[in-house]
Amino acid sequence: xxxxxxxxDIALMKSKVCNDEQIKRIKFTVKIIALLRYTxxxxxxxxxxxxxxxxxxxxxxxxxxxxGNFLGLRSNSIxxxxxxxxxxxVPVVRSEIIxxxxxxxxxxxxxxxxxxxxxxxxxxxxxDAEKIKPIGLPNxxxxxxxxxxxTKSADNVxxxxxxxPLSFIPQITSAFLATDTDQLLATAKIMxxxxxxxxxxxxxxNRTTKDWIAHFGNVTKVNHTELVESFITQECKASDNYCxxxxxxxxxxxYRPDNSQMMNDIGFDEYLGFIARYGPHIDVCDNILAxxxxxxxxxxxxxxxxxxxxxxxxxxxxxxxxxxxxxxxCLKSRLNESWVVRQSKNSDSFTLHxxxxxxxxxxxxxxxxxxxxxxxxxxxxxxxxxDGQKLMRFAQSWDELLYNVMGLKKENIMQLQMNTDRIEGxxxxxxxxxxxxxxxxxxxxxxxxxxxxxx
Length: 455
Known about the structure:
By secondary structure, the chain is an alpha+beta fold. Helices cover 35% and strands 14% of the residues. Strands 7, 8, 9, 10, 11 and 12 form a six-stranded mixed beta sheet that branches. It has a four-stranded antiparallel beta sheet with strand order 1-2-4-3. It is globular and about 65 Å long. The relative contact order is 0.08. Residues 136-164, 298-308, 417-424 and 439-455 have low confidence and may be disordered.
């Protein structure tokens, strides 16, 4: 038995996980499992500590603000650590939380999470939790070292000075986020994952920071509605599409699977990730309009808890947050060539999933589509073609990229139908899809069927 399992007093538990001098430093994951094991024995303290096991014993419920207060940390730090250690948010309706835990304070900000990289369940021990490592280490370049680095080798020879891992961050951004280390690190992580040169990262981040300050001032968070409204142009406000565009933009901040806050305020780092895929700020409204179905509601998403009369509605081939497993399962059930586009993990990319006819049979494939908000409008969308040599093919619009460059057909847009069988897709170059053998024997269009999304 470890020292935490022997504790029955909540005040003593807080003392141990927060500032016990006998323990040099307790890892975040160890604190979490210690508190989960404690609230498992004392469920009455879940509302005070801010964390507990769901009845399934595999997922947890947490409130970043309450947990942060208990651990002496800001809610941003709690959310950042959850993300860094692969605790992914799972969509949940509030009634499920109420059924499992009764009346909880600040109910709107309790999230359901699961660990997606390491075994994690009600049987996880303190020793198991010690083995859970944050993403991106040791090569992410984002780890803050709390002490002075050793600048000399064993032979007393000065060690080489490494390139500053955050050198691409412009002065305006560093000064802007000087008091918010969590957002600074999140910003750096987003930028590092983008397919840009150091100079392009600097240029993009400099412009995006200036746009934020121009619209919202020097605050690092802004009201959710104010942020969405800032993207809407006067022309859009005067059109019939205003409510639909607003709902679609709002959806990206409200319903994304990795949303760690579900609050009214949106941080600069979340804004940055959105701009990387749909920006710059001045072009967001037009870019979202290009992905919007203004004629009919999107039937493959259940928005039972959506808080507006207008539901998000995207063009049929675009499913922003659907996961790859669901896509591949649906493609397996299709009889003809089919395709769909979703957001990728990196903030500047999308993934095209397709069932295509290759070498005499159907194959399930995927390929990356890159978006470069830093580029000229004619070269913002691109795919990699490998016709003997790797070349980027650029496009100004989605229609140009999908139908001209990729050679896809509108009649083969996937009408989603749930299939729970697992099938592995393979990643291919864009040229494989573009130059595939046309197979006209299976050119029927399947009927539209609703699907319950597994986010």
